[in-house]
Write a structure and sequence with these properties.
single chain, 183 residues, mainly beta, 4-stranded antiparallel sheet, 3-stranded antiparallel sheet, 1 helix, 7 strands, elongated
Length: 183
């Protein structure tokens, strides 16, 4: 080992070793029980998802509910229709550290933008509702990697610190915490 090798240390640590994100838009068709007259509101709720790693990409499988409030019977009555939709997004890793030293990777996913309704319309034939949903997801892979750090030999710890500490302790009044005890 060369003399300069003593100035470096290799540290094994967990670190983010892969990252990716994906923005997506999807059109969903909902069939209401009545022929809609107008759309009164739309909400995307109950978003659930689970990520898993698969060869240079993270697969996110999830679901959400779409609730549409609409009027029917020439705008004289209203109803809410709800359907659950599932999705499977493959998110490519745009950043990938090839120096991971373990095959066991932790996969994390979170939403940068929760699924939301972009646009809700009645279909051209008038008996269905079309909902445009958008969302953005980010994924991270955590794995063990090796970091090499430079050790500065000139930055040795000052050995006089023990003497300074002893002096500081000698100057303390050991009776300042002791009070009179009543019997």
């Amino acid at each position: 080992m060369a003399e300069t090798d003593y100035n470096y240390r290799e540290i094994i640590t967990k670190a983010v070793c892969g990252k990716g994100k994906k923005f997506s838009q999807n059109a969903h068709t909902i069939t209401p029980t009545h022929k809609p007259s107008s759309i009164l509101g739309c909400w995307v709720i109950n978003h659930k998802f689970r990520p898993h790693y698969q060869k240079d990409a993270v697969i996110v499988e999830g679901s959400y509910d779409i609730n549409v409030w609409y009027s029917y019977n020439n705008n004289t009555k209203t109803e809410v229709v709800s359907e659950t939709f599932t999705y499977r997004d493959e998110i490519a890793l745009t950043i990938k550290d090839r120096n991971v030293i373990s095959d066991r990777l932790e996969v994390y996913a979170h939403t940068l933008q929760e699924p939301s309704s972009l646009e809700t319309n009645i279909s051209p034939n008038g008996n269905k509702i079309i909902v445009q949903v958008e969302k953005e997801m980010q994924v991270e892979l955590i794995g063990e990697t090796k970091v090499r750090v430079n050790v500065d030999a000139d930055s040795a710890i000052d050995e006089d610190w023990e003497d300074d500490l002893d002096e500081a302790l000698d100057e303390l009044d050991s009776e300042f915490l002791v009070g009179e005890v009543e019997e």
